[in-house]
Request: fold
Amino acid sequence: MSAAAAPNGDAMLDVEHIKQHFPIRRGILNTVAGHVHAVDDVSFTLREGETLGLVGESGCGKTTLSRTLMRLIDPTAGRITFRGRDITHASRRELRPVRTEMQMVFQDPYASLNPRKRISQIIGGPLELHGVARDEIAQRTADLLERVGLQREHVNRFPHEFSGGQRQRIGVARALALEPKLIVLDEPVSALDVSIQAQIVNLLEELQEDFGLTYIFVAHDLSVVRHVSDRIAVMYLGRIMELSPAEQLYSKPIHPYTAALLSAIPIPDPRENRRRDRIVVGGEPPSPVDPPPGCVFHTRCPRAQDICRSEIPPLTDYGNGHLAHCHFPLNVTREEIAGSTKSPLSPAASGDSQPQYVDPELHPA
Amino acid sequence: MATEPTVKPTDPLTATPATLDPAQVDPAAPPATGPWKLAWRRLRRNKVALAFGVLFVLLILSALAAPLWAEHVANTTPDRNRLADQIIVDGKPRDIVSVRGIPMGPTWRGEYFLGADENGRDVMVRLLYGARNSVFIGLTAALITTVLAVLLGLLAGYFRGWIDALISRGLDVLWAFPVLLLGIALGVSLATEGLSIGPITVAGNSLWIPTLIIGFVGIVYLARPVRGQVLGLREKEFIEVARAQGMSDWRIMTRELLPNLFSTILVFFPLIMANAILLEAALSFLGAGVQAPSPSWGTMIDTGLDRLRGAPHLTIAPGVMLIMTVLSLNIFGEGVRDALDPRAKVRLEH
Reply:
């Protein structure tokens, strides 16, 4: 799946200015002492058949965002449109038909399977819930098991009899059971061994092709995401820093945070690893309870200037679907900046200022 | 910017099929061993627990056989008084109750096997009928406790918030009372007036009065651990999965959470039942439980106490039965606990 092959299908999921703030309650009276800004004004459009990678370090809000999209938690503000239907405030009853079209695969294959249920009940559960006939359930459960690389005979086993990779296959089979259009994969391979990761990733790709699935692939491992994604969104402290076709993000990172993340990927060859210039971002990410004003990354950014501390940069569109949220972008020419436009996906509170050119000679990344 | 993916993209045509998992489960392996089967296997190895389990079953069977013994062996009923009669033992006539009011001791034969009581009734027969009452009350009360406690624990743990606050504070109030005191208070007031809730009316001397009281006061001991467990379970990802599938709250509680509570319930049930039987005996002994002339071990010990000197069999017989029943349930229950979860530390105390 390369950027060139990125499908240009219809919009599957439209996310507009989603915010997810969790109140922090304190004291006897349960007064709200503040909010955790887990997701802060995120917008993007997911097209049918594509895979959107969602990366960022721990606590950046990627898992919260995926749960919000699934409507497992109610968004604080914003709008989610799924296949033309506004599901932002849909009730549980209204959501039921939607549930058959969007499913989720969870991170921890040990916690996501009910230990007291047999595999047939785990995979057949969603079918039963949505009124599929009993003998058809048995048939489809066995077929699904086979489809994800397990054996039909495994239907009567319990989760504890399987390895981590096999459990994740069961999780995938369960998500597939209702023949969804969209599957949100929340770090589906993070808990697995590297050798097993490749198998699951390959399985997911096969399934995507066979069933024409659309994926949101949440991960913190940039190499896995690069392999599976058509487009990648880089998140930091609840905001999208950069949104770009997958290959471009690696060959030409525009946001300093992306560049720093990429330079943190270890290279297997230690000599080469030592030779390269690494961008090391110091310190810890600030608390999402009290995110810094302006660009949230300015506290750790090597290129930060005064404007970064006061004005939220817009998501600037550099063409080709490559968007970045930065006042002083990397790897772009004067001409590209001149031709850039403010993307409609920008946070509502962002300013209108155009990014400024920084001469790479004077100011190396 | 050199970035080498650690996951090598493989060509889909030449790649080893993703179906080849090195840790594949052997399809020829014996069929699934569920968690219950494993627990049963461990329980079977615990001979002591098993022996006491068998003892309890024997006690139940003897209680069920009470009418057979009364009719065919003792030729009497639990309520038949024979104050002035004599029976022939070893060819000699003996007073069932002596002129000085002391009932005769065990004859070790069919009639009056364990002797007579102060009214000339057959102690053995009353003991067996008392076992019926005690076991009935213990079992039914334990069932009532379990059903209500699991329901309350599930609701409190799953919904949290104000529902939890309401249920938990209610349980705290219940918890604050010494069980025996609460039982006596409820028992005395209900035994005199009976109970009537809407269309249901229970007479004061009905067995249901002590049963309901004992079932009610035990709720706390199970509801709290269940609530705690549900609080932990509800954060597990499989509950989120269920929500993502569109399951209703009730279905999540009954289909996803309840199966995970069974082992806790199974561990607690024999212990709750033992406690219920003990509490029934205590309440009956104090006159707040089973009402005379219905036989119960507690009432038998109570009336026997006055004649401890001349007729100790009146207290010893029901006392031994009580100890055997409670002990067998406790030891069997502990065996069940060890089999289900060797690490769990479950203790029931008053």
